[in-house]
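User: My advisor, Dr. K., asked me to get a structural model of this assembly before our group meeting. I'm new to this, so sorry if the format is off. These are the inputs:
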Amino acid sequence: MMEFFAMDYAFYVYSSLLAFLSVIIICTKDAFCHLSKTLGHIKNTIHQMESDNET
Amino acid sequence: MSSPRYFYSIATSLIPWFLVSGLILMVAGLINGLFYAPPDYQQGDAFRIIYVHVPSAYISMMAYSLMAFAAFVALIWRIKIAHAVIVGAAPLGAWFTFLALLTGSIWGRPMWGTWWEWGDPRLTSELLMLFLYLGYMALRASLPNLAQADKLSAILILIGAINIPIIHFSVEWWTSLHQGPTLLKAGGPAIDSLMLYPLLAMIIGTTLYFGSLLLVRTKAEVLNREKNSRWAKKMLLGDQL
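Assistant: The format is fine. Below is the predicted structure of the whole assembly, which you can bring to the meeting.
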């Protein structure tokens, strides 16, 4: 097994890894937040329409 | 599957399976690729960047191909889900294209001695694809009418699909700094199995991960389009309806 920082070009390899992990985290957070926001927005709209109908 | 209600229910059950199996494969591929695969005889340890660069580049092209297929289906058969799939895939495809360009640039610096080369056909055609993704999202955002946005953006996606074979074959058609195909070449992959298996794990894992997030984003888009339908209201409000 290779030592963590012993490899050649460690800066380039770990910069790429960091970029990959960052995009994975951003995409995951963004997708689930987007779904959650959409659900919340539609629920609010439906509730608003119902209360408008009642009045 | 073309029924929004059926799609929503199938997607909800598939998402955790795709996400967990994708993440497990990615972790296994990264650990094996970074620490256990032997160094390349020419590139040394710098070759390990392929474990993040190749899956990113693959997803960037696969996502666009999927969008082009969905655009074709949406325009010909007018299937509503297809437009939602395009909307869901675009931001993911853009992120992975950006990642492919970034990791390719990081790889290019020690191997080619430059971060970027404008005359290289693979690099510039991949950059063009990033602009196509961004252009698609900008076009959609600029059109308030949903039907018009769906139609025009689908046409843009189909026109841009010509770039996919150009990206793939650019290293064969023209002189390029970028190396030729390693996996998809006649006579089988030109890579040792100790390097190949972690790469395959990364490609499959990233594809499953992409699939899970595509389903999450498409679910949101389907719900947004179907918010006035009875099934969506019933599903969202449950017993209150």
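One thing worth pointing out at the meeting: Residues 183 and 189 of chain B are 4 Å apart (CA to CA).

User: Perfect, thanks a lot.
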